[in-house]
Amino acid sequence: MHKLLIKGGRVIDPQAGKMFAADILIVEGEIAAVGPGLEPGEGAVMDVAGKLVAPGLIDMHVHFREPGFEAKETIASGSRAAARGGFTAVACMPNTDPVADNRAVISYIKARAKEAGLVKVYPIGALTRGSRGEELTEMADLKEAGAVALSDDGRSVASAAVMRRAMQYARMVGLPVISHCEEPTLSAGGVMHEGYISTVLGLPGIPAAAEEIMVARDIILSEYTGCPLHIAHVSTAGSVRLIREAKARGVPVTAEVTPHHFTLTDRAVADYDTSTKVNPPLRTEEDVAALKEALADGTIDVIATDHAPHTLEEKDVEYQQAPFGLVGLETALGLVWTELVIPGVLSPVEAIRKLTVNPARILGLQEGVLKVGGDADITIIDPELTEVVDPATFASKGRNTPFAGRRLQGLPVATIVKGQVVYNRNLAMIS
């Protein structure tokens, strides 16, 4: 019988909203007991004194690139990056080649994740065929195959009529719609936030209005259809205001923010580092302040990375030619701790809630909590550990991070999925 005792840590319970000293006994991949003074019997012991024991982190927005773009990332390399970042589960976006718009691709992703055998990988199915925004996918089929949500992330559904029908059908099959909010005629050709900095740098801009117009439209359609709507990678103060007002009216809308959007501003683009080229773009100091306020007051439910790896050759070009995206799985927790927890924007419990139980609830997953009888998906965090970000050490194939050289605090030191230790930085195991 496989047993593991996690001993001496402080447990974070995001559902109950509290932290307490306790041991956790894992038997055959499930949590068998939570409490003080537990004994392992014949099992191994992991000493986590001085550490925080959290439910396994969930990233509901990653791009693992497989099938079709394996040079950027594979499901196996992405899973290793997730484990190293403290994530026990991820939801991967459908903009692969072929697009994850049918049962076969969803099944392939699940099979490859099982082969990798590291973290749980939940596919997100495309909203429209080929993510072209024209014809709806077979949503019931996608759900049956294992899709946990529907999205054309990377592209906005330009047609309001198509988006309305998509929401009507998604509601019928019981899947949330994740919206990449970008009005394509306003953002066309833009490579960074439209404003003073873009003017100084001579780069074409993407106005905040390009995001906010689509946020407003999709909120209206969600209210009209009753379909749960999740707004991906919110980046502007105007979007925050629209989401806050919609929630107050009872619209079934949730939202996420990325660590790079609550950490960096468009000033980071000043040296033309293509790792700062993301979509939506890095915005202004006022936008960052609004995002932090929205995290604190609950307007933004989730922190997700939008992990988007590219090859060195793709990114090592002129700013306007480079693809959008940065890698985020292995820096996420450190940025959350350094930028939000230590300054007091969020408590440790609130931060972990946005990385566990909230994404699980939106996607209809059983994960995100530590409960007896549940899967032993656990992340061990050392709140004092610091490290300078070195992309050369990443498990991801991607190296496109704007955080190289930045010192982060509050890092994952072990990741456990169904009782198996899939990442261990330096914790002693006594058997």
Task: Provide a quick synopsis of the model.
With 431 residues, the protein is of the alpha/beta class. The chain folds into 2 domains: 3-53 and 375-430, Urease, subunit C, domain 1 (Roll), CATH 2.30.40.10; 56-368, TIM Barrel, CATH 3.20.20.
Descriptive account of the structure:
Its EC number is 3.5.2.3. The active site is at 306. Keywords: Hydrolase, Metal-binding, Pyrimidine biosynthesis, Zinc. Pfam families: Amidohydro_3, DHOase. Pathway: Pyrimidine metabolism; UMP biosynthesis via de novo pathway; (S)-dihydroorotate from bicarbonate: step 3/3. Strand 11 (192-193), helix 6 and strand 12 form a beta-alpha-beta unit. This protein has two domains: 3-53 and 375-430, Urease, subunit C, domain 1, CATH 2.30.40.10; 56-368, TIM Barrel (Alpha-Beta Barrel). Strands 1, 2, 3, 4, 5, 16, 17, 18 and 19 form a nine-stranded mixed β-sheet that branches. A five-stranded parallel β-sheet has the order 9-10-13-14-15. A three-stranded parallel β-sheet has the order 6-7-8, sandwiched between helices. It has helices at 75-84, 103-116, 139-145, 160-173, 184-187, 196-201, 208-225, 237-249, 259-263, 285-297, 312-315, 332-341, 348-353, 357-363; strands at residues 3-13, 18-27, 30-35, 44-47, 52-55, 57-62, 87-92, 120-123, 150-151, 177-179, 192-193, 205-206, 229-231, 253-257, 302-303, 378-388, 407-417, 420-424, 429-430. Helix content is 30%, strand content 23%. Helix 2 (103-116) runs parallel beside helix 3, helix 4 packs across helix 7 (208-225) and helix 7 packs parallel to helix 8. The radius of gyration is 21 Å and the shape is globular. It has 431 residues and is of the alpha/beta class. The chain starts with a strand and ends with a strand. The model has no long low-confidence stretch (mean pLDDT 97). It contains 14 helices and 19 strands.
